[in-house]
Amino acid sequence: MNQFQAVLQARDLLRTHGRGESLVHAVDGVDLDVPAGQMLAVMGPSGCGKSTLLHLLGGLERPSDGEVWLDGRRIDDLSERALAQLRRRSVGFVFQAFHLVEELSAAENVELPVLLAGRSLRTARRRADELLAQVGLDDRARHLPWQLSGGQRQRVAIARAMANEPLVLLADEPTGNLDTAATLDVLRLFEDLRAAGQTLVIVTHDERVAATADRLVSMRDGRLVDDTWMADRRQPVDGVHGWEG
Ligand SMILES: Nc1ncnc2c1ncn2[C@@H]1O[C@H](COP(=O)(O)OP(=O)(O)OP(=O)(O)O)[C@@H](O)[C@H]1O
Fold it and tell me: Which residues form a coiled coil (predicted)?
């Protein structure tokens, strides 16, 4: 653990695709320390490597070179089995397209990762009840995903991502498919999680979303080109302008 008590660290991270003429440096020498409890936004033009960076940080992809550390433990060189366990227990993912299991109810979607982590059905049910209440969907617990609005589906996905109390919550364009009202719901939820000490990394194209973060890093061509700590300038969700437009 370093002086910032970084929960998540990237060291000279490289991820390439293809070879020869078609070689792409999706992530090209990224160093990053995310302190515990920080809400970090990642922005940059399409194709600059934001999703790839998020996948590397959460162990969904392995780097071509460099290191990823989670809570003081190096994760990029773990076995497949250990990495799968880490993803289930220590990292929460939220995606633009929700990726809920369509055959399962909202509650069952949240229960699933708890069961996969080896806990009892009773524990899983209790956790799902708590989390769905927290995201304001206790009255939708038995609904299937297609019976929910996009914003409701994303709130279920956030509840699912939080099911095993992850060290970090990683979100890839979480509001990209949502209208303004649903975006605000999701941001208020993130704000509550942040207030409770949750570490969040959020990839976004939306400056209004980034304005609510503690820190904004900008990427270009696989590199970090700017790193701004908002400190006192971060905006509470309801203080951000431009939602009407
Ligand atoms: N599996 C792959 N094979 C080949 N190239 C890939 C692969 N995955 C990503 N890339 C390339 O790596 C670069 C970074 O992609 P990435 O999806 O991380 O960008 P992004 O910033 O998240 O883009 P967007 O904002 O459009 O989602 C792009 O040039 C992309 O085409």
Answer: none
For residue 78, give the 3-state DSSP assignment: coil
**Cα–Cα distance measured from residue 32 to residue 35, given in angstroms and rounded to the nearest whole number:** 10
Query: How far is it, in rounded angstroms, from Cα 59 to Cα 44?
Result: 21
The alpha carbon of 171 is separated from its chain's Cα centroid by a whole number of angstroms, namely 3
Q: How far is the CA of 111 from the centre of ligand 1 (A)?
A: 32
Query: C-alpha angle with apex 22: 16 to 25, nearest 5 degrees?
Result: 25
> What's the half-sphere exposure (Cβ side, CA atoms, 13 Å) at 131?
28
Which ligand 1 atom minimizes the distance to the CA of 51? Answer: 22
Locate 91 and state its tokens: 């990292």
Averaged over successive runs of 10 residues, the pLDDT of the chain (245 residues) comes to: 75 96 95 96 97 97 97 95 93 96 98 96 98 97 97 98 97 96 95 96 94 96 95 76 69
Which tokens belong to 99? Answer: 């990726």
Which CATH entry fits the domain spanning 37-48+80-230: 2.40.30.10, 3.30.70.360, 3.40.50.1110, 3.40.50.300?
3.40.50.300
Residue whose Cα lies nearest atom 13 of ligand 1: it is 26
| Domain boundary assignment for the chain | 37-48+80-230
Nearest residue (CA) to ligand 1, atom 28 = 47
Ligand 1 center to 50 CA (angstroms): 8
Residue 211 Cα to ligand 1 middle (Å): 24
For residues 14 and 30, what is the distance between their CA atoms, to the nearest angstrom? 7
Distance 190 CA to ligand 1 centre (A): 26
Indicate the pTM of the whole model: 0.95
Distance from C-alpha of 216 to C-alpha of 178, rounded to nearest angstrom: 21
